[in-house]
Amino acid sequence: MKKLLSALLIALLLPTMMLMSACNDASKTSDDKLSFDYTTNFQYYYSNLNGINFPVTKSEKGYYVFLPNNYLYYIDRKSQAATPLCNKPNCSHNSVDCNAYFNLFVNASGESANIVQYYDGNLYIVVKDEDAMGNFLGNILYKVTPDGSTREKLIEFKDGISHWLIHKGYFYFSQDKFADDIDSSSVYDSFSIKRYKINNIKSKPEEIFNSKNYSDNLRGTFQFTAYDDYIYVPVLPISEDEIKKQEESGKVTVSTYQEFYSININTIKINQIRNDEGDVCSPFFYNGQLTYLIDNSDTNGKFKYFTSELDGSNPKLLTEMNYGDNLFANESQLYLQNFSEDTDENAATESDGDNVKSLDASFNEKSSFLIPFECSVLNIPQDSDCFIFVQQVDNMNCEIYFVDKSKTESLSGQTVEYKTLLSSVNVEGENNNALSQVDENEKIDTNDNELKNVFENTQNKLYKISTSYDKTLSDEVNSGFSVTLSWAGDGGNYTGNFQILKFKTAANAEKFVKENPLSFVNGQYVAFVSVDKIPVEIKDMLVSIIRNEPISPINSTDFGGEIYSFN
Amino acid sequence: MKLIMFEIYKLFSKKLLLICLVLFFTANSIFLVYTQSNNLEVKTVHTNLSDYENIISKYSDYVPTEAERQLESELKTVEIALQFDRTADNSNGDDLKNLGRITEQYKAENPEEYKKARALHYTKQELLDKQTYLSNLVNQCKSLVDYSSFIGDMDERAQMQTKFSVFAEEGSFSYNNILKTAEDFKDVNNTKLKIGNNFAVENSTTFVLTDLLVFALVFLMCIYIFTLERDKELYGLIRTAKYGRMPLIISKLFVLIFFTILICAVYYSSNIALCGLYSGFGDMTRNIQSCELFMNCNLKLQIWQYLVLWGLSKIITMCVLALFIALIFVLVKNTGMVFVVTAFWVFIEGVLYLAIGSNSPLNQLKYINFLYFLSGNNIFGNYLNINIFSHTVNITLIYVIAMILIAIASVTVICMSFVKSAQITTNNIFTPMLEKFRRRFYKIQGGVSIFKGECFKHYKGSMAIIAIILLVFVAYGNATDDISVVYSSAQESAYSAYIDKLEGELTQEKEDYLRRQQDYFDGLNEELNTISTDMSLSAEEKEIRITAIDSILKTKGAAFEEISNQASYIKEVGERYHITPIFINYIVYKRLAQNPSREWQYFTLLMAVIIFISSDIFAYEHKKHMIDLIRCTKKGKLRLVLSKVMTLSLTTLISYTLIYLPYYINFIKTFGTESLNTPVVFMQDFANIGSTISVNSMIFITAAVHIAEAVSVMTAVAMLSQVLKNNILSMIVGAVIVLFPCLLCMNLTDIRLYTSFQKGSWMWLVPSLIVLCVFLLMICLTIIAFNFSNIEFKAMRRCKNEA
């Protein structure tokens, strides 16, 4: 009897225990989806699926960042200081012999794609291989020790590569095939994605995706990303001529320019990420799921965000956002950035930089802060601990800024506290202060309100504007920016680059104008023009810029034909 | 002592050694002066030495910052004076306006220098010279200014670096390297640096040819000391000395080392003297770090002390190298194999030194290398630590240890081998096998014609067939190599696609096509502007659309711009030469007509092969003691000479074809012959060619020059072979005269035939080269014929003597 009761008890308990275990496994599975090992997984939060990539990678002890001069810097997480990745105190870090220098590769479109990745204790960097004549010979993948002292050549790509990443034991790379016929509707013909096992580089690469096998309309790919068991590939779906036709007929949607595909790295199953309600754009990863925006202009100013399984299946509405509100996330931390136009409502809080909000799971604002750099966040959440920005100040100089994210949690609209880790690193190579680091107490005056207003006034008209200006024009210039304008004229289109300079004093400005006839002056402000003749409309516009007056937008085909000559 | 004297006598009884000593010394001196005079800065200083040294003595005691300021002021004065000169020489209205503006700017910004410039009365050349050496001094000041703070802050920098986690692991190479470097540079902290004349020390310590020549002399001495007696089988006679063979080998080694030291001392000190005489010695009591080249030196030495140390290191390295070569000579008892083993070893050292990167995990093989020890100022002038099993070891220490170990090991093994083993020439392991094979399958039947006999001696006896076989492999590689263009960017690919469409004559249809493309890109630019100012688009949409159009403009647009420029250029050329404008694929044809590396590598390889095959053509009979057997032919010795020369010419022609032809065949196979008949002037790089010769013609002319050079070198080496009666010696002399300069000029891309086509100087250079080659050919053939016809054979000499 006792035995029978025991048996019954076991028979009853066992399934229950199994059920509980299953539940635990289920919850463990959903937790696992959130766990992310940045030492073996691709650090997706430094890029977005629109092809933007930050040249930063994270290791256990710090961060590695490439400057535009191809020197690799290391930022120590504890001390929040930066140094070139060179262990020679007797090196001035301005030659190709420096350990920190890499002849970085650019992809087939001439852009620098994913540049550096930390993986399983080492850095991986792809460089260009050239012969003595400068002819391109291909790309080389190097494995570099964390201190930069040793680099081991792993793979040579004779045909070059376009984009790459390392994820869960594999090195993935794409290769574009160019169109042979110049009159074909696209520069690109097709592309393929292949992979090597990172521990078995000598083996032949495995092709996991070839656009020709899938569709004739898939032309090229942008920087792809990886998350969990999937590779995500943004693809240019149709030819440039087709794009033009759709634009002319007014039938342009986001999918005109980009489609997204997921590839399961275990089954190599390819899936287009679609949504019946509209075109998928700006995908990101939130709480272990794929999240994206639906571009549907019939939604009365509201845009829908959907989440789905990582392969794009089972989409569910997540939330609706106002026009211009862009969501992005790092794992479980949501951010919002608004890209809408000027409105009266926004004008009051308008300032130089990017306004970013951190949200809770209910999409309520937790904090909001301003990132005061030209290089905006652009849907790239970065590491959960910090933001790192590299800003090219002008042609010669570059700076690294470090923002501790924990200090943004209590802000409501204020500018973030940031640390300048490197100041005035000369990106041309002739570097006298490569190790110049900024004293913690040093404050940088970034507030020149008058110039800021002029700058914003110009910027808001969305001309091509840059905070860099030609510092060689005069030593008396305090600050400035440059504007690029194009206009149609006799014989074709013209482009002018105009320097808007603020001198230390009005007298200096006057002196400059006397010595440089191709300029206009108003008080301390000078607009320096680099050509002898410009349309009158442009002259009027430049004058209104330096007078800080409202500027009317100019349609480049509306020029009256009257020319202003500096003679 | 007697043994040593006999060894010295044996060595110096060889006239070739004495000739080589003098010849190499002369060649070294000439090349050194030539390279210096080719350097604009050095040449300018040489011409204005007293003025240069006066300026130095005026400012050398100034603090570098003050010296820099003063020198910059002087430089600015000269620049302003040059500006006056340019303005005075110019008559173009627009240019004058611009020049005037610049002059006014100078006047406003540098009033004092402007006044001084007005008062200067130098010629334009004098002003340019002043500008050159003042710039040199200003750059020196800049380096000195940076140096003081750089060294002063090194300790602080090192401390700061060790705080970074990647460098902070105690016991790691990085950590140790940082601390050790800072420690080692402490001595040079607060070193007083002065500007000065650095050309002598920099040029004399970086001249590479001397190392090659001294190495050749060392090799020659080893041949005379170790192999001649073995080849003549005289070791049986000198088998035992009073205390065994040890005194003999020690005498030989002593003589080798002694003369190596002597040669090194003479050659390297002559370099220093020549450089000093040409460009001035300057103040040699300055600290060595005053020279920019030595700023990474951590030794507290004056310049003259550094030179002494450098000289000593060269002598020690050469002596140890001599011992190592001697080791090969003693261990390998076949002379031919010695050459092969030495060449192989040099090749391996070269590959390790050049191919391994400085950051490679195997960089120890790069640095612990004779080539590294010999190159420039690597031992004492350039501070470096190497990771040896996670230990941070300085290169100087490695050098010292390596030299001691190699020297001890070499001497020990040489002595033991010489004493214990018989020094008898042996065949290599392949020769008996080859002989057996030959005897089985090849029997001489009846008489053999002279030509066939010469071919047999040349291809089999002198192993020219091996060179041909190796060249066949090279040819196969060149013929099957993938030379298709790898596009580094979509722009390059788009250019290629455009050219595929436009290649050939510029027809009306093509002009229309270009116009349509121009309209298309103009439209895209317009559209960009429209999008920028379109307020109805969201920022993201603008971004995406602009990006899409931008990507077309950056790729196809940029390529089209190149095509447009090319179209303008070919039209202008067409007008100039009254020919139809023709599009040519620049990317492709640049590879054919304008590849300095390939051109020089092929030429160097051809020279190496010719030297190898020609060196034995006349020496063979002497080597095999068959000279008395070839006494006379039916029509005299001339027929024999002609047969030899014909055989050699045949091999030269085969070698030339195997080296050059496969690439052209591969090129035609890959790219077709579309533009081979296009005048090469349609490539912008050849704008100054001064003629409408086609690509094909240019290649034929280049081929003709190369063939002429090959044949003349072939006869010259054949002549050497006849005079020296020894193939190894002929090879060495030939290599030094021809091959070493080829290797030295590998990086000098100006010394290329295609450069003369670019500059337009080919019209006189090509005929001159061909005439020179023909002249050399005639002289060498005459000498050969004369010498050969005057050979006195033993029987005849005996008769003469008896008479």
From TrEMBL, chain A:
It comes from Ruminococcus bromii. This is DUF5050 domain-containing protein. It comes from the Bacteria. Keywords: Signal. Residues 1-22 form the signal peptide.
Automatic annotation (TrEMBL), chain B:
The keyword Transmembrane helix applies. This is ABC-type transport system involved in multi-copper enzyme maturation, permease component. Signal peptide: none annotated. The keyword Membrane applies. It comes from the Bacteria. It comes from Ruminococcus bromii. Keywords: Membrane, Transmembrane, Transmembrane helix. The chain crosses the membrane at residues 207-228, 249-268, 303-330, 337-356, 397-419, 461-479, 600-620, 641-665, 698-721, 728-749, 761-788.
